[in-house]
Design a protein that fits this description.
Blueprint lengths: L1 H16 L10 H11 L1 H21 L5 E7 L8 E11 L1 H8 L1 H59 L5 H36 L22 H11 L1 H22 L4 E11 L2 E11 L4 H68 L5 H35 L4 H12 L3
Antiparallel strand pairs: 1-2, 2-3, 3-4
């Protein structure tokens, strides 16, 4: 009778630590929309985008006419002189270079904004994973504590009947105490993770929704060359570097224009008392500033620096994409191995129970087997969350569509 009780109590650990399917899961995409309107770091990115777009607009109007209106009184005047001047640039290489900077500045504004949006998606996913890890570890550890309590009760009854030893009972009590202490750490980690997530979305998440379904998780992978080609075309960080290089190149033309003559049409209307003077014509301006020549050398050096930065970004992007592609592929293999390890650990625990009943194994062997079941399941949860982050990183490297990348990572994580 005692053996039957002990067997049922310990096998309860298998049932307790087995994951059940959950009816609901966190809506990461809805939380992403909340984060885009609340997260302070992202709001600075919104302001930065507006500033960059304003710079592009400023460049776009560089070739428009300029008008000035002034009131002054010269030494030769007896009344105040009002002067209106309108100038329309005709040939001005510097202004033309500034005008041509509008498009790359606009592109830079959008590319850097996408990078910040991807950063928000990454931080949100990591925040969700932190809650999942703490939540799942709490559930698994609770099951382990329940199993240890049952084992302690069974060991105590065996000791009372003269069939067990004090050592077995003490070993189980030590493991139970360690599990209870660990539970406090997991609960603290969960509390911190919830606060960090709320700091991003502005709302406290429902912890019960951050659970993993016991389902297969798959994602079709393309060849590494396809991901590299896509990244070289669509990677937002790389695009930002290219736009910066183009702006630097046009800065060289702008600096060159400061050394060359400019031609503009001008209209002047000057009125002092009853006297009005009007003049219209062509104005030729020939700059003679030695400082402009040396300033051009500095600008040209910055252009060369931007070119090398772009080349460096291309090489890093290629390496990063290949690494992430390999990491994701390996991750799927690891998950398969870990699922097999979970099944093996559960069978090992059951075998240890039967061996203990036959007098071949000790209570310590059962404790170790119980710990192994907990550990392999905890490792599996860690691998799933790590894999979801690797998938998001890979998709962000190869696409400008942040919502699509996060959706794929979300579907993988919650087995949608």
């Amino acid at each position: 009778m005692l053996k039957k009780f002990f067997k049922q109590a310990t096998i309860g650990a298998l049932v307790a630590v087995a994951w059940a399917n959950h009816a609901s899961a966190a809506d990461l995409m809805a939380d992403f929309q909340k984060a885009m309107t609340y997260d302070p770091t992202f709001q600075t990115a919104v302001a930065e985008r507006q500033a960059n777009q304003a710079s592009a607009t400023q460049a776009r109007v560089a070739y428009l006419p300029e008008a000035t209106l002034s009131n002054q009184r010269l030494d030769t005047d007896t009344t105040t002189r009002q002067t209106t001047r309108v100038t329309m640039p005709i040939i001005d290489l510097g202004r033309m270079a500034t005008f041509r900077q509008a498009a790359p500045r606009d592109g830079f504004a959008e590319a850097t904004f996408v990078v910040k949006t991807q950063d928000l998606a990454t931080r949100l996913l990591k925040g969700a994973n932190a809650i999942i890890l703490a939540n799942e570890n709490i559930s698994l550890n609770e099951a382990k504590m329940a199993a240890l309590d049952q084992q302690a009760l069974a060991a105590k009854k065996k000791l009372e009947l003269g069939q067990g030893t004090v050592t077995d009972l003490r070993d189980i009590e030590v493991k139970a105490a360690q599990a209870k202490a660990q539970q406090l750490s997991y609960k603290t980690a969960l509390a911190v993770a919830v606060k960090q997530y709320a700091a991003i979305t502005g709302e406290r998440p429902n912890v019960k929704d951050f659970v993993l379904e016991q389902k297969d998780r798959k994602l079709p992978l393309k060849p590494a060359t396809d991901y590299v080609d896509a990244a070289l075309q669509a990677n937002p960080s790389l695009q930002a570097a290219r736009f910066s290089e183009r702006v630097a190149e046009l800065e060289v033309e702008k600096s060159t224009g400061s050394l060359l003559p400019t031609i503009s049409a001008t209209y002047n209307n000057s009125k002092a008392g009853n006297t009005t003077n009007t003049y219209s014509g062509v104005l030729v301006n020939m700059p003679l500033q030695a400082g402009s020549y040396f300033a051009r050398q500095s600008v040209q050096a910055n252009w060369l620096k931007a070119k090398e930065a772009t080349r460096d970004s291309e090489e890093k992007t290629r390496v990063e994409v290949e690494k992430l592609r390999e990491q994701v592929e390996t991750g799927f293999e690891v998950l398969t191995i870990q699922k097999n390890a979970i099944a093996a650990a559960e069978l090992s625990l059951e075998a240890n129970i039967k061996s203990y009943e036959g007098g071949v194994r000790s209570a310590v062997d059962i404790l170790n087997a119980t710990q192994t079941v907990f550990q392999v399941k905890s490792d599996y949860v860690t691998s799933v969350t790590t894999q979801s982050e690797a998938i998001l990183s890979l998709l962000n490297q190869t696409s400008l569509d942040v919502n699509e990348a996060l959706t794929n990572a979300y579907k993988f994580l919650f087995a949608k």
